[in-house]
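Loading example: each entry is read as two labelled lines plus one structure line.
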Amino acid sequence: MLPAQTLEEIKRDELVRRVQDLRRRKYRLVAISATRLAEDLELTYSFDLESALLSLRLNLSLDQARVPSISSVYWCAFLYENEIHDLFGLEVDDMQVDFHGKLYQTAVKFPFGARKTPPEQPKKAPASSTESQVQANRGVVVGSEDVSMPAPAH
Amino acid sequence: MDLIVEDEKVLEARPSIGFVHRGLEKLVEKKDYIEFVYIAERICGICSFIHGQTYCQAIEEMMSVPVPPRAHYLRTIWGELSRIHSHLLWLGLMADAVGFESLFMHSWRVREQVLDIIEATTGGRVIFGSCKVGGVRRDINAEAMRSLLKELEKISEAAGEITRVFLRDNSVKKRLCGIGILSKEDAYDLGCVGPTLRASGVAQDMRQLGYAAFKELDIEPITRTEGDSFARCAVRCEEIFQSIGLIRQAAAKMPEGEIAVKVAGTPKGEIIMRTEQPRGEVVYCLKANGSKNLQRFRVRTPTFANLPALVKLLQGCELADVPVLVLTIDPCISCTER
């Protein structure tokens, strides 16, 4: 049902060169996405030409989560890069417009950065009625109690 | 937007967002893939249905779920009703921005008729709650469809009166014509989508990908070449009637049959799903690892894509034109920040 979608794995050093090549071939930047894996940060740069989607996939180890900006090639990329920096803690060098971590107001810095894969839903033992009431009253919480989060910055 | 101004000229514009960031993407860790459609629908109140539809389509594609044809048509009809009410809402806001209060009220009065149809067919005015993984929750029977088409006739007439004012009134044209010109090359290079892109002459509409029932319907992107605020307004005016036509086509071609299939198992793999919201292309990037919670849920909304163009448009403009320019990309803050 979907039109063609191609995925290419690339290395960090190839990123800007490949993006420049796509720009020359008149590709449109669609989105830049990030996913936190167990040990890596996975970046996907998606481009479109006449409804065909081409994605460049880049895997970075968490202790080397740094990429060059592509905003010198696609100026509009600055918004995606700032967002990924604020949510995942990715360092992006030479952004054309740099919000210095202030694009999103979050209580927790890099809210996606500290998490690894989604946790298994814990098997719940039968609870007492008091405990059930406390659980029922608790709303949805961003982040989880089983990962130590840095204290919110003031 | 934060603006740096000198006298009546805007020197620089900086997006100032993040106040409505709700961390919805992170909720995949809490909600399983079936109930997550309720979160997807609540990303935005205006384009709620198409968010839910895009999410369901992405999961269905990943799990190869055979959605019944009738469900595809119902999704198309509700999606186009969503587009009509969104464009009427925008027209009202644009009228308000140029100081034409009575036109604002009339636009929203006609929008109320669209919301009444949506409420009658789904039970909700804003959050429809009618899309689910595997199909839809409600059907529109023959009698309800006849009533819907009859109401649509009245809406078409009323919308005609309103759009004639937008397109012909001198006071409206004076505020829109020649304001915020975005060339075809700039619109494409800056990553614009939707009516903002089509008003600059680029014939791109994600409905041409053929999702839902669109592969069975006749659809041509509506474009203009001027690239100014008037062109963006005109494209939205014409799309109202295009959507009315698409609903009539869908109603005529919709087959009988089931409206949903049972979905078993868990998704595994990754997918990028694109659909056309009222504001433009929305991109859903989903990644699943076989558990009942998705590993990643990432949404790139059309307003997010159009923001860089707005930053460029505002540079050097007159302060009095700022409300019009901001509105012409049809910004949706809830969508942008999620």
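Residues 114-123, 125-154 of chain A have pLDDT under 50 and may be disordered.
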